[in-house]
Write a structure and sequence with these properties.
By secondary structure, the chain is mainly α. Helices cover 64% and strands 2% of the residues. The protein has seven helices and two strands; from the N terminus they run H-H-E-E-H-H-H-H-H. A two-stranded antiparallel sheet has the order 1-2. A hairpin with a 4-residue loop joins strand 1 and strand 2. Helix 2 packs across helix 3. The longest helix has 31 residues.
Length: 195
């Protein structure tokens, strides 16, 4: 069960990064930063494996059938063996990074086209999903969902806590919602000090 959740997390990192750029309507600089994060995420399993071979050489570890044995400390052989096997994570990380990079490119193109068409109009185009500024405990995600689908805020918070306990990947989904959806803008009547 935990392995399935981890596979989903590895597969969804790239698309989640692209969705953050899409929903937040980020600038070109942020798009480039997130693109570099996607590229680094895609090659990180291979970098870990390469670093493990360097550590094995540095500490004089010898390769055995399915692992490494180090003279001192003994636990280092197990750690290096695990790091060497991390190249298998590239099966999930590289496709996720490619999808994320394509999504970032599409997001940048759409953002660039919107900025050209709305050059004469002040402000950004309206977003339909905002995190609440007033009714938040952690990030305002539960109150935004409750408001969007006309549900009880208390019920949404209870459901979120239960899902966080039962489903290991829910914390990542909540974190993604926190990053992807902007906080509601201030109304013109609302003063800066009143929140």
């Amino acid at each position: 069960m935990i392995y399935t959740s981890l596979i989903y997390v590895f597969l969804l990192v790239g698309p989640a990064i692209a969705a953050i750029a899409f929903f937040r309507r980020l600038s070109t600089g942020w798009h480039l930063f997130l693109l570099s994060v996607c590229v680094f995420y895609g090659i990180s399993p291979l970098l870990l494996t390469w670093g493990a071979f360097g550590l094995a050489k540095r500490f004089g570890c010898s390769a055995e059938a399915i692992g490494f044995r180090c003279p001192d400390p003994a636990w280092l052989g197990d750690a290096i063996s695990g790091l060497v096997m991390s190249h298998w994570l590239a099966i999930f990380a590289i496709p996720s990074a490619v999808v994320g990079a394509i999504g970032l490119l599409l997001s940048w193109i759409l953002n660039h086209q919107q900025s050209r068409t709305t050059a004469g109009i002040s402000g950004q185009p309206p977003t339909t999903f905002y995190r609440s500024r007033r009714h938040k405990v952690i990030a305002g995600v539960c109150s935004a969902i409750a408001q969007r689908w006309h549900q009880s805020l208390t019920m949404m918070r209870i459901v979120a806590v239960v899902l966080a306990i039962v489903t290991p990947g829910f914390i990542f989904l909540y974190l993604w919602c926190w990053l992807a959806f902007p906080i509601e803008p201030r109304s013109p009547q609302q003063s800066i000090g009143a929140q």
